[in-house]
Amino acid sequence: MVDVKSILMRVRADEKQSLSALRLICAGFTFAALVFALIAVALDDTFYLRLASEALILAGMAISVDLLLGITGLLSLGQALFFGLGAYSSALLLIHLTQNFWLVVVTVVAGAVPVSLIFGWIAIRSRGVYFALITFGYAQVISRIIYNTRSVGASDGIVGVPLISIPLPFFEIPINDPVAFFLFLLVVIVAIVLALWWLMDTPFGRVFPAMRVNEDRLPFIGYNVRAYMIAMYVLAAVIAALFGALYPMLRGFVSPELMFFEMSGNALIMVILGGVGTIIGPVLGAIILTIIKSIVGSFTEHHLIVIGGIFIALVLFFPKGLTGFLRLRVEALMRRRREEIQS
Amino acid sequence: MEQIIDYIQFVLASQMLNGLAIGAAVIMMALGLTIIFGLLDVINMAHGEFYAIGGFVLMALLGLGVNFWVCIALVPALLLPFGYAIERTLIQPIFHKGDRHILTLLLTFGLSIIFQDLLKIIFGPNPLRPENLLPGGSEIFGIFMPNYRLFLIVAGGAIVAAVWALIYKTNFGAMVRSAAFDKNMAGSLGVPVRLIYAGTFALGISLAGLSGVLLAPIYTVFPTMGHDFILMAFTVVIVGGLGSITGAVLAGILLTQIQAIASLYISPVWTEPLIFGIMVMVLVVKPQGLFGKFGHG
Q1: Any idea where the domains of chain A sit in the sequence?
Q2: Cβ–Cβ < 8 Å for A68, A279
Q3: pLDDT (tens digit per residue) in A294-306
Q4: Pick from A320, B82, B136, B283: CA 20 to 30 A from residue A183's CA?
Q5: A19-342 in CATH: which number?
Q6: Using a CB-CB distance cutoff of 8 angstroms, which residues of chain B are in contact with residue A272?
Q7: Buried (b) or exposed (e) across A12-40, using 16+ Cβ within 10 A?
């Protein structure tokens, strides 16, 4: 007789190990980021800190794409829509209404929920490529409307977003201090990654692996698959909008390009580069893509060929991305350590 | 009364004829997309770039002194081996993996980035425009139409007829339809399935290239020229049903007519959201589009 319980125990142990490998990768990333910040402070650098801050903001959008692609199995080609909407509402709020950081963030997030609920409800009626193309269309159409609307700056976008500070319980973070803002973004990213890992281990999160294995069987044991998908779509949109809201604070402007397909495509490249379905992977992907762009970009403006080539090679040969590669190494290392301890 | 007739004759009818010319262009793009999806289940994100490549190959050939009318046949013929090679080397290896929908979509997305940049490097970012060989216009039913647009409508009709005949009336088409219906069964009955797959992909690519050639004299040629059409082409294919030839043609005519007529009354900026809204409504009612895939009943 097959001992189901022992199989389940083994699967669970494998998962635990895999997750702790990911945690180790996350810790390594945080450490590297802190070292980078330290070096930047020592060298009195602003440029690279700003670049890294932007990479972290884009990493937030990549996480949102990964939640859909890697966790839920839905390919969104228009996640930049929510990023852009977040950025625009944040810029407009900051200029016209309030300069309270938390009020802006809460309003943007609260606004993203109903919008993504409606969009998600429609898009998730169709699956697979239809979903991909509908999300593509959402972003295209809305970016084109904004591109042609005078009152939100049309093709010029909105400039002159005021610099604010972020009030925290014991101190304040002035946004124009590059180190402080970078560290703030780092904390936000790591907190979101950890929170999402936690979420994936709750009863809510455990539905998604089951959905990927057998979507047709879930309804029989009482799960409404579409409701879970829509919930994840809303969560992904909220995360994209949140990081979108941070964008004008860093750069001081927004433009319709933020919603263009190039942005959604970039986020997708980050996810594939870093590793689908790992949540920390897209963050690494965002960092690597930014590094590649600035290195290749210093030789030639045609960096897209290099990125496209790397991307195709990844899709063909390493569909698990960098994290998949690292994870195997770390897991092997951990297994060897454990065996050494045992023997 | 006379005013109404005048309105219909000079405003509405000419707008509809113009819409038909755009419709012909959109349908040509949509046909390639739908054929590739119908057989291979591949969403070709690089379709717009293949369209641009068609336009640029035309410019290169014109530069070498080749006649425009010869190019109409030559460019699609040159793109056939290109499309064939891409299918065999890049799409075939990932075709049999689990999520081929997503993988192939990502792959063609990567291709589109590379092509865009390559075209920019080779030809520069500025728009080029070949000489229009059918200048001037003529009157039909009292409506004045530029000659080239009339030619576009006729050419579009001819291409649709040719593709339809190729898929439904030839041996090759029978093999394509059988492979789309059940590739294992078709394979065991002696249909060279891999060859058919690559051939169909090549056919779709050369159709995109052909639209690039035909549209070059009125829309100019530049590296991102595909972007303007690709959303409309996707919309048409989704409304018509991914993988349906009839659907692509009917939805293509319908949507471009709606767009043409609507732009008389609302600002052109809003016609695109209108079309997209129609697509969303179609999907809410019929998530798989209006018509089914070819090869399926």
Answers
A1: 19-342
A2: no
A3: 888 788 777 788 8
A4: A320
A5: 1.10.3470
A6: 106
A7: eeeeebeeebbebbbeebbeebeebbeeb
